[in-house]
Amino acid sequence: MAPARTIEIPQTGLESRLAARNLTWDRPTCGMAPGYLQANLIVLPSKAAKDFEILCARNPVPCPLLAKSASPGDFNSFVSCASAVSNEKIAAGIDIRTDAPRYNIYRDGVLVEESIASVEKHWQSDHVALLIGCSYSFENALAAAGLTPPHVLHERNVTMYTTNIPLCAAGGFVGGKYVVSMRMYRASEVERVRDITRPYVTTHGEPIAWGWDGMRDIGIHDLGAFDWGDAPVLADGKPVIQSEEESKDGGYVPVFWGCGVTPQEAVMKAKTPGIVIGHAPGHMVVLDVKEEDVLRK
Amino acid sequence: MAPARTIEIPQTGLESRLAARNLTWDRPTCGMAPGYLQANLIVLPSKAAKDFEILCARNPVPCPLLAKSASPGDFNSFVSCASAVSNEKIAAGIDIRTDAPRYNIYRDGVLVEESIASVEKHWQSDHVALLIGCSYSFENALAAAGLTPPHVLHERNVTMYTTNIPLCAAGGFVGGKYVVSMRMYRASEVERVRDITRPYVTTHGEPIAWGWDGMRDIGIHDLGAFDWGDAPVLADGKPVIQSEEESKDGGYVPVFWGCGVTPQEAVMKAKTPGIVIGHAPGHMVVLDVKEEDVLRK
């Protein structure tokens, strides 16, 4: 996550997109353009995109839809899907085929190419791009309140788990489950953490579960058995305390949020026919929207 | 459900609200004002209403928020909370204290008065009314397609169950579960039923589970052990087939939708402090919004 020494870190959404387009930035976008919203990307054939939009409308906590292509095939102009986002402020001059630092390609729901720099040759006239909120926003707010997530302190990826919580079905997207990200906090901090992240309704919002009973309720029985990201750590960098018994000394509990990996999981589960494009994990599309714009008053 | 013989059935939202206000209509609103949207009602103290609005935003399938009081204490003017609903079309001249045929009163989350005709003396200057979508809309669409729900055919209340699906928490509303309504269909009809109800995203939309495995997945193990409404029937009026084995002859399976009882359950679960007002089940607020206005294109 350390910035390259020889290039400047882009400070705005536009600078970030141009750096990705010009191939001067090909690494994760964590820490780029502070205060600007970063987005998860899914590009789908238009029929699947229509169902996927309904999937987002029905499951806004893991899949908070921000904007979509103005029409099928359009990689330059986007329309807002969130009341807090105005069409003008999404991303001026964007080319969604080049403006994420890295992309993944799926064919019929199977990952076939990984971490490529542009998708101009994969783009189809029937493709619709969807931009979905990302938890970097509320992580900045937690840090500002002195509650920096442990994985950020230790420059690790956040830990992610599949749960037993069903996504509400939408057309071809049936049988999906919520994916959650997990951050360890002291039990005494949980209510503050909830309050700080609550206004970020368009970027996953407040936690959906917390504590050891809460963990088991959503079908997670071992924090060490994570599905994506890095192994979890505590604020002091030690491995997490794995059980209720062991946690009594430190007072730490796991706290779980809806996670932007859910959309890509849904695509794999649905075996969506044709070519689907996603950003490579961590390599987000940076928008012109500011975090303060989407805060619920 | 049979209309009174001596009074006319109101044919518009306005007529329905005036009939409730004038005490000429005190029965369930099923069948009233065909084509007009009917709404579930929850009135909360403003602090709880703020959390509840986030609960709806995070759980739109069981809790699709349509509109709310323009400001705390306002029982006459409403503002839209759904992009498909314009402020002007919500409910002209409404008085939410009198315009539902019957109300229930909760104190600190406990039901204390049932089926009263008006709530003028219970209304407080800090109260906020929230109007939430109702499944009557998609039931009309199913009937128009020759798939009238069995309980409608036999003039019974729909059967409702609590599930194991957690509501995404919001402020004081923690630990709630989805309530679902259930309608029996032949397995061969399920995809049509899904397609017909899918566009009704602001009134619970398409089913969230179906079939015998789907039933067990959401924590229901006996269709006879329902939590609200009447015992389930088949289209021919016979009691439902209770098991996968017995269903093989008839080919019937249970189909489950998010249900507007969920909000009242959430209030009881949260033991919301102070006075909360709900409509009496089945005694909805009829709006000026037409069903066609909220259909997703």
UniProtKB/TrEMBL annotation, chains A, B:
SUPFAM superfamilies noted in UniProt: PSTPO5379-like (SSF160920)
GO MF terms, alphabetically ordered: D-glutamate cyclase activity
InterPro entries in the record: D-Glu_cyclase, Putative_hydro-lyase
DNA damage in keyword set: no
Keywords: Lyase
An example Gene Ontology biological process: glutamate metabolic process
Top-rank lineage group of the source organism: Eukaryota
Gene3D superfamilies: PSTPO5379-like, PSTPO5379-like domain
Matches recorded under Pfam families: D-Glu_cyclase (PF07286)
Family, similarity comment: Belongs to the D-glutamate cyclase family.
Protein name: DUF1445 domain-containing protein
Organism, scientific name: Zasmidium cellare ATCC 36951
Taxonomic lineage: Eukaryota, Fungi, Dikarya, Ascomycota, Pezizomycotina
